[in-house]
Amino acid sequence: MAKPVFVLNGPNLNMLGMREPEIYGPDTLDDVRKRAEARGKALGLAIDFRQSNHEGELIGWIQEARGGASGIVLNAGSLTHTSIGILDALQAAELPVIEVHLSNIFRRDSFRHHSYVSLGAKGVICGLGVQGYELALDAMAKLVAPVP
Ligand code: DHK
Hints:
By secondary structure, the protein is α/β, with parallel strands linked by helices. The chain has five helices and five strands. The chain has a five-stranded parallel beta sheet with strand order 2-1-3-4-5, sandwiched between helices. The model has no long low-confidence stretch (mean pLDDT about 95). Bound molecules: 3-dehydroshikimate (DHK).
């Protein structure tokens, strides 16, 4: 059985749909999950979609991914800009990681321009809303495809 791709979401992403829709869009996290699962199905990838407001829980899931997942798509929310612990876990996971942000973090406050997650990521997609998750899964499918 192929291992799933973990799609992990950090703090406040459970508030999507209600939270600053002019920045994050009108879709709820459940909408994001459904779209990620549909794209995963089309690509032949199993998706394990999770959200937590807690740094330690996210770190635990990234540790679980080592051995339990084929890759990680991560929107770490605000922890993107603060968490060396998440970066350390990503580097220890030894898996392809794609960082996603709904908003274009480079058009926003300067404190959002730096990402610890990027230091542990193969690639970054930001500013394309929910579509960013689908694009990340497209890229992930190629990264985890068995070498013929
Ligand atoms: C989500 C958040 O919660 C912010 O803290 C980040 C990111 C941006 C997003 O655009 O998805 O700065």
